[in-house]
Each structure stands twice: as C-alpha cells, then as structure tokens.
Design brief:
Blueprint lengths: L9 H7 L36 H25 L3 H33 L11
Length: 124
C-alpha cells in the first residue's frame, strides 16, 4: 500500500463508492464486483479483503429497519398480509444491495486508510 496522507475521507469514499486514495476512480465494475485497479490514480486493489464484514453489518441494519418497519406498518396502519409481502419483498433486496455497496466501499476505504493487513509473526 502507498502513502495515505493524500487519501480522502473514508466516509466520503464509501458513500461515493470511489477510490480510497484519490476519491475519483470508480471502485466497482457492476453492482458489487471490484475493479482490478483505480482508473484514475492506478491504485492496485489487491490489498482489499473485506470478507463477510459488509454482509454482517447489512444483516443487522436491515433486520432492524425491516422488522421495525413491518411492526409499525402492522400495528399502526393495519396493513394486510399481502401488502407486507409486496412491500418488504421489494424493499428489502433493494436496500440490501445499496447498503452492501456502501458498507463494502466504506470497509475498503477504512482498510486502506489504516493500512490493515493480514497478521504475520515475522517480517519478510
């Protein structure tokens, strides 16, 4: 990894899904597929290892939002069961994709800023 003194804010890079170093190059090719390098500054994305972190955070956040929303819709507005299926069946996957994109980009930017690497017992 290279010098992080000129890096952009991890939150800004995460929200925009941009390169954590320059803040201009796109991070994803499609919805969630990573690019090999930054198209603007040439940063190699081989250091990226978010693992299951974005999915775990998304599950907790979506669980809170969707269950809370379903309970409010049921007990405050008396929404019928088929409306729940229609509403939450469409809203939950859409929220999941957008939330996963943001969380993955945020974790990549934080990993870059903090120079996070795999643990080693000795320097090679």
């Amino acid at each position: 990894m290279q010098d992080t003194s000129q890096s952009v804010s991890p939150i800004v890079a995460g929200l925009a899904c941009r390169c954590p170093r320059c803040g201009k190059g796109k991070l994803f090719v499609d919805v969630l597929n990573m690019r090999e390098t930054c198209e603007n500054c040439g940063l190699d994305y081989k250091f990226v290892d978010t693992g299951d972190g974005p999915a775990v955070f998304a599950i907790f956040i979506l669980g809170f939002l969707c269950i809370g929303g379903a309970l409010i819709a049921e007990f405050k507005f008396g929404v019928p069961w088929w409306a729940h299926v229609l509403l939450w069946g469409i809203l939950t996957p859409l929220l999941a994709v957008f939330l996963l994109r943001f969380l993955k980009a945020l974790l990549i930017a934080l990993q870059y800023k903090n120079k996070a690497e795999e643990g080693r017992l000795s320097k090679e």
